[in-house]
User: Fold these one by one.
Assistant:
Number 1:
Amino acid sequence: MKAAPLVVLRGAKLTFGGRPVFDGIDLSLHPGDRACLVGRNGTGKSTLMKVVAGWIDLDDGERFVQPGIRVAYLPQSPVFKAEETVRAHVAAGLPPAEDGRPQEFMVDDMLDHLSIDGTRLTTTLSGGEGRRTALARALVSKPDVLLLDEPTNHLDLPTIEWLEEELTRYRGALLLISHDRRFLADLTNRTYWLDRGVMRRRSEGFDGFEEWADKVLEDEENQARKLDKRIAEETRWLREGLTARRKRNMGRLNSLLGMRKERRDRVKVTGKATVVVDTEGGGGSLVFEANHLFKTVETPAGAKVLADDVSVRVKRGDRIGIIGPNGAGKSTLIKMLLGSVKPDKGRVRQGFGIDVAYFDQHRESLPREGTPWSVLCPDGGDTVFVGGSKPKHVASYLRDYLFEDRQFRSPVSSLSGGETNRLLLAKLFASPHNLLVLDEPTNDLDMETLDLLQEAVADYEGTVMLVSHDRDFLDRTVTGILAFEGDGKVTEYAGGYSDYVLQARKSLPAAEQVKAEAPKPKAAKPAGDPSRNRQARLSYKDQREYDQLPERIAGLEVEIERLEGALADPAFFEKTPDKFQAAAAALEKAKADLDTAETRWLELEEELAAIAEAKRA
């Protein structure tokens, strides 16, 4: 028999500024639950977690916590007291002492694992250091319920692996928000999916979530199409015969009105960001050649070696992942290669014709007082030249990155972490380049945008150098690894992160072996062939429709491409805004018609397959 829940939400409802964040949500956490809370950025995941933590009150519904239960919460943006040391902040989270036994050793142990100096004032910490401090406080508290919002942000790989081990041993109730797929797949045993204000539940962990979510959305679209068809049929009945049968059919009329209201209230799935990376031509086959680099930096404990006799050769088209503990020298190596930092010894030779797009981990290239519009058009106007040459209206370009119209002129300082990242990516990819340097790009990105960034990097024809602690992201994007393995030593490995694990495991001490496993390959979806199963017997009407659909689908695809090309021209909007709006409406209709045609073709394909199977039987 399952133990009673420690925390429960029933019928939870919350609104901000008159807009509902979620409504009618139920959630429960039992001992031993390791649940993930997933959903797109902006859907209210962090807000919901604050409700579970008791930081925000509900507008309606109930929050229940078992008496005597200790709840610890790691927020995305920790708040610290003035003049408080790191050690004091963490120690304040300690549970009541048992039998007067001292517990301060727990604080020192946690600070050591998370590489934090306990004597520092919390007001002097960077964003990443502040999050590690808040994480240390949450972990030492030994809570019954542990709520962690993006705990792996700003953690290096060894620390992420240590945290996984800690949470695997944890026996309370755990609720996680994270964009790190490997982290979620390794830890969780149930899933809560917050989608457009509605909570969906899955009694399994994150592994397999994406296939399940795709099926849920596909079923939802099918139900929506069926509802639209029923509305059309009932509307035709209403138009043709209501007057003569008014009294006997009011129930049917009311049903139609209810269906129309259901369609009006239907919340559409938010679009996906469109990340396209154009590669500038030119340049030679050599990008960088570094020989015998040596670099030290002064620290309070003395000189620290970041690079000791490091030699690296990067050729055009290479995709290099750089991994290692925080502070090991990963960003410094990149800066030495780019020429912004000089090595103490050794030399760096750069190839010719290199144009760099640099995504820095501190996001320092965005003016906080600027707006998304001014960031992309610093000299005024309303045109962005994507890749340095392709003109596009700035509003259309910002929409590609999921910005709403109201945000175009809002201050950069008002954007969330994920929105700031998307704006930096938009700015970065608008410039011409053939060398893409990404320093911790995955922090604060939602999974959908992360997927698109992975696809863009995978399709990029230039050279990629990537610093990341996201194992899944590395496996999907890089073909070589530079691993910082301590004391300034850097070793090259072929393949992605999982390949590095297999090659490095034999040579590393047991305590440093990485326990990550290679991601499971996804089954390829079978591609349809319009010509197959033609021998199956459909009705004459269906067979004729089936034969005509491929040509109709191809024609719609051509029309969509033509309209998208026209709408990408900023001069089109400036000269003829009415025609621009008409073309935008035509594009939406063409996309809807294409979806309908493709769906119908798939339905006929299924019928043919069923007929063929029946014949074989």
Note: The chain has three domains: 7-211, 286-512, 540-616.
Number 2:
Amino acid sequence: MPVTGPPLSEPFDIRQILQKGLRERPDDTAMSSLRASWTWRELDDASERLAASYLRMGLKSGDRIASLMPNRCELVIHYLACFKSGLVATPLNYRYMAPEIDHALRVSGACVLLAHDERAADLADTELVSGLRYGTISYDDNGGKGDKSYGNFVSAEKDRVVAPPVEGDAPIIIFFTSGSTGKPKGVTHTYDTLGWILANCAMSYGLSDEDIMMPGSSMSHVGGFWNCNTALAVGAKVAIARSFDAHEILPALRTMQPTVLIMLPSALFALIRDNDAVLGDFASVRLCISGGDKISAALEREYIQKTGHVVGEVYGMSEIGLSNENLLNDMGTMGSVGRTNAGYSLELRDDAGNEVPVGQPGRLWCKFPGITVGYWDNPEATAETIIDGWLDTGDVMIRDENDYFWFQGRKKQIIVHDASNICPQEVEESLLAHSAVEEAGVIGVQDLVHGENVRAYVVLCDGEPYPTQQQLIDFSKKSVGYKAPEEIIFLEEMPMNATGKVDRVTLKAMAAAGH
């Protein structure tokens, strides 16, 4: 039987996302960074002007408007303008290079691009940007250059150019997958599905209008996007970090004093290990959440030592929102992604589609009113992934007798060694527990005898004695036994994918090329 979470009454209204703040405290700060701040009234006014400017260009409801932007408050205003105008926001990862930009533009059919001017050289190398129907909208930290600039658009006259009403099933945003299992696909959400996701996030985090949310990850990715907009929907203040290293995050923590901090494991690990970070920097944080990849025991241990609290772990995807959370200060469930969230039904199935027993690994299938309506212009991939209203996440988990779910890895990344399944994240965690290891990526390499052998790629920390390959292998064996890597390759820099996770696709390619 599926495991079902608590009831979730209704979705948030994305078209009215600022209304609680506007109604109750319009002149209080709604959003700030270390550079600037906006009240609720100013945020509403700026997004109204920008929406009107977009429509004045000739854009119509349903048109896709791409963005290639770093974390800025102005990106949030852009999203709000899309909500108000009926345009389909299409955020591109800021790490994208010319081929990836072209792929996203080709898939989405975007007709205009909002882009930071510092990416001009990369945009010049693309095939499609110069041919966009409405061109490129310039942005820099002074507003941008030329007539078609963000600064001009957001300061234009606030006339009554309005979009026609849109239905709840109209598309509102396209997120691109990380590409960990193939070419990135365009995950499409509507006003309604996005509203369900935000409503669930608010309930899962226990957010109120007294909170200050710092989404310490890119707001061009689904996590940063929905955390920011969930906070606005409940009337909470948003604190924007322009980058995610300690030089930005630590001053932001000290100045803006967020109550909720959400970061990717790799960025949080680096923050905790920064010598300048002290207990007092986290004094305001009631809830620190990490997701997007498995949290290592080393990260949990060092965060507890630094702050006295555990890191809350969550599980979610662009396609489904946030299906699981484990935010309790409970050492007994550390390492679990938690129970089923409100509104969700989850089931673990084998390759034949049968439900697996408690304690056995299976692929996670999800049902929720907020799951994606499909992949943009890709009905084949949609039909493969969504069957009878259930979405196949492709992730392998184990459910225990208390209905806690334990992430095991992606089905396509599981290493099969002598007929035994090995989760790469588990081996990576064993290596990250070593004080000299800063980053670790683990893959399987083909072997005629064993099927696949375990290979680890490791980046070492500065200032620590360098261990040998055999010393690290022996260290790993102490915690994971036969799953420990047969070989370790040391790297100067770990390849990361577009969402800041270890890029195992690139590691596989390196292995195939003999590296």
Note: The chain has a mean pLDDT of 91.
